[in-house]
């Protein structure tokens, strides 16, 4: 992952839960695991506990993202993607999952990898109100203006 490393304090709220880990060298996201068995009915959403709490360093934020394989193969995604973890939050990490399959249940087994945690540096933004914004080639075009 290069030389850019930060220390991330983590607390197991359940001593038996596995700590998050990278699946492969160079991955951006640490895999988060479910701390309980869950059955999601079609189109149902639920908060799934991870059994973990973290202390994101000041100047950083945590972003919880869906796992692409689960989304594609099973229809399991997140209702609030990305889930934002501010540096001052100290509660349990929970993943707001949703079953996007309209016909089949999705079973999540305790210990199963359900999401990824990405830690990113985030600058404090100082707003500067202006009367006009600089012109760009794109201008105000959005929502498909550059083609589908």
TrEMBL record:
InterPro entries: dUTPase (IPR008181), dUTPase-like (IPR029054), dUTPase-like_sf (IPR036157), dUTPase_trimeric (IPR033704). Pathway: Pyrimidine metabolism; dUMP biosynthesis; dUMP from dCTP (dUTP route): step 2/2. It holds the Pfam family dUTPase. Its EC number is 3.6.1.23. One of its GO terms (molecular function) is magnesium ion binding. Residues 17-147 form the dUTPase-like domain. It catalyses: dUTP + H2O = dUMP + diphosphate + H(+). Substrate binds at residues 67-69, 80, 84-86. It comes from the Bacteria. Keywords: Hydrolase, Magnesium, Metal-binding, Nucleotide metabolism. Belongs to the dUTPase family. This is Deoxyuridine 5'-triphosphate nucleotidohydrolase. The gene is dut.
């Amino acid at each position: 992952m290069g030389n850019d490393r930060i220390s991330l304090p983590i607390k197991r709220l359940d001593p038996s839960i596995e700590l998050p880990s990278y699946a492969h060298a160079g991955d951006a996201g640490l895999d988060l695991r479910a701390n309980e068995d869950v059955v999601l009915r079609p189109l149902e959403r639920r908060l799934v506990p991870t059994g973990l709490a973290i202390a994101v360093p000041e100047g950083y934020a945590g972003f919880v993202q869906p796992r692409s394989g689960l989304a594609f193969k099973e229809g399991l995604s997140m209702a609030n993607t990305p889930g934002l973890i501010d540096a001052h939050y100290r509660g349990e990490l929970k993943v707001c999952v949703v079953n996007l399959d309209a016909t089949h249940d999705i079973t999540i087994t305790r210990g199963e990898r359900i999401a990824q945690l990405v830690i990113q540096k985030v600058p404090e933004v100082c707003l500067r109100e202006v009367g006009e914004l600089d012109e760009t080639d794109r201008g105000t075009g959005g929502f498909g203006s550059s083609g589908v």
